[in-house]
Amino acid sequence: MAQFDVPLDELRTWRSRSVEPADFERFWAKTLAQARTHELDARFDLVDTGLVTVDVYDATFAGFGGHPVKGWLVLPAGTSESLPVVVEFVGYGGGRGLPHTHLLWASAGFAHFVMDTRGQGSGWAAGSTADPVGSAPAYPGFLTKGIEDPYAYYYRRVFTDAVRAVEAARSHPRTDAARTAAVGVSQGGGITLAVGALVPDLVAIAPDVPFLCDFPRATAISDRTPYREVGHYLSTHRGSVERVRSTLAYFDGVHFAARGRAPALFSAALEDLTCPPSTVFAAFNAYAGPHKEIEVYDFNGHEGGGPHQQAVQLRWLAQQMADPGPQRD
């Protein structure tokens, strides 16, 4: 697939037409306050994985509604000092998978917390976290679950879980809460943007080819799932367009980006049909943090930079972690 979106010089100034709800901040403040009425109850059980370079803990914490959410905490073996921590959110349909697939950040000397995504984990990587909340009729997938009511919407639960995941990661005695970063690819990148707005004191965020950004454009121009799930839903629920648009505005990465506070490293791929580059640039151009960069992969699709982007992240994040003080509020 050749480049299909607007030219790169236009992407550099591209802006979303997504309309921010007037009560956006109140909605999220209320949501997180409700979640925090439940004890975090973070637990970390050492797991014998057969790996000798890392210590792996099976993590459990209370997410949205006090529901148990799983994760992995992976630490470099043989260390005793408090380590900077990278909290990772995974892509659409996947779960936390197996511990030996999460060696990059611990190998670089970081603590690494991987959040399981509730109700997913049956596509490309297994998960262990149920979503005990039901929803109204939804198109197969997750993007339309509860989509006509922001309080019932699936991603309200996921984004709340993600904030609580940062709190859980910071609660472990071998992590340095003052040096916490969030990373993720695709859906994980969209969750990262939300966390970057909802957790005010992160050192850095790195959303790769982020999903869940600029919903008005994404749902209009992408014929790939997951965005196409919304179109399928509305082709049946013909009178629900405005209610759906209203709900999605509370979860649009563009509005979270406008509240970003940490240095940010984005990536976009110009042949990405799943998360079109204009939707990624809409979030990047809205980003309000003190410093932002974007890596552009001209001839790649949704795989983005892959291992090349990971190499960029390793260098960039080490720099951010080394001197976080001036970048904090």
Overview of this protein structure:
There is one protein chain. Helix 3 (104-107) links the parallel strand 4 and strand 5 (111-115). The protein is globular and about 55 Å long. A nine-stranded mixed β-sheet has the order 1-2-3-5-4-6-7-8-9, sandwiched between helices. The protein is an alpha/beta fold. The longest helix is centred in the middle third of the chain and has 18 residues, at 154-171. Helix content is 33%, strand content 19%.
Based on the model shown, name its key terms.
329 residues, alpha/beta, nine-stranded mixed β-sheet, 9 strands, 33% helix
Give a short summary of the structure.
This protein is an alpha/beta fold.
Category from helices, strands and their pairing: alpha/beta
What is the CA-based Rg, rounded?
Answer: 19 Å
Average pLDDT number: 95
Extended strand count: 9
How far apart, in Å, are the first and last alpha carbons?
Answer: 43 Å
Query: How many helices does DSSP assign?
Result: 11
Strand content: 15-25%
What is the quaternary state of this protein?
single chain
Strand order of the largest sheet: 1-2-3-5-4-6-7-8-9
The ordered H/E elements are HHEEEEHEHEHEHHHHEHEH
Biggest pleated sheet: 9 strands, mixed
Q: In which range does the helix fraction lie? A: 25-40%
Low-confidence stretches: none
Broad shape: globular
